[in-house]
Amino acid sequence: MGAGGGETILCLDDIASWTKGRAPMSQGSAPTGHGNDGETGFTLVELLVALALFSLLTGLLFDNVRFGLRAWRSTSANTEQVERSMISQDLLRRTIGNLYPMTIANSGVQPQIDFEGTKERISFLGNAPIALSAGGHFRFNILVERTQEHADLVMVSTPELASRDDQSMTRRTLLLSGIDWVELSYFGETATERKLQWHESWTKQSDVPRLVRLRVGFRSGDARLWPDLLVAPRILADVNCIYDPITMRCRGR
User: Fold this and answer.
1) Average pLDDT taken over every residue of the chain
2) Contact present, 250 and 112 (Cβ < 8 Å)
């Protein structure tokens, strides 16, 4: 249309804008709104806040993971220590329970049993360890080995007929490490006191004790437990011994 009639001349671009839902833009007008058709993004402050929250949550998560790992390791260590104590008690129960009361000669009239027990040491004859798959008797010594730093409860076994100079057959077994004290006691009747009671030592007796008790103490802060171990010897007399009062020993020995 002509300019004098006041009519607006529409161009093809304006018509296309209307069909797409946008207002027509005449020549010389400035664009309005966002340049990306209404799309918005995060500001720098929002990004910093999000990163701070993410770092906080990550720190809390890793703290919980570390706590869980420490708890798992502590539980595993305590479980291993309890299992070690149970295995040691079972080994001592079988070894002491199967001791053999060998009759030996002495200078007196009454025979004596090859058994010596003190507060921290016990020595006796018993069946061969199962691990060796051997026969005959072995001498067992259960004792405390002390060093400057700690003390250990060990068991040393040697064949009965082995030479003292030959250490090749000696077997040392660590029962408990890092202990504080050990207390052995013996229940029975002695030659001097004819009544049943507990004794701190058992040496040069004609009978084996009826019960052997082993107590173990640990240092402060050590979570290990050791219930009192009570063992009753199964064999109370040397059934293979025919005592000869003239020679004061078993016949044939």
Assistant:
1) 78
2) no
* Higher per-residue pLDDT: 136 or 7: 136
End-to-end CA distance of the chain: 145
Q: What are phi and psi of 115, to 5 degrees?
A: -155, 125
Q: Where are the alpha helices (DSSP H) in the chain?
A: 12-19, 44-97
List the one residue out of 199, 190, 202, 191 whose CA is nearest residue 123. 202
Rounded Cα distance, 36 and 33, in Å: 9
Q: Which of 101, 95, 138 is nearest to 240 (CA)?
A: 101
SS3 content of the chain, % helix, strand, coil (to 5): 25, 30, 45
CB contact at 8 A, 103 and 241:
yes
Contact between 214 and 85 (Cβ < 8 Å): no
Beta-bridge partners for 211: 187
Q: What does the domain layout of the chain look like in residue ranges?
A: 95-250
* pTM attached to this predicted model: 0.64
Cα-trace Rg, the chain: 44
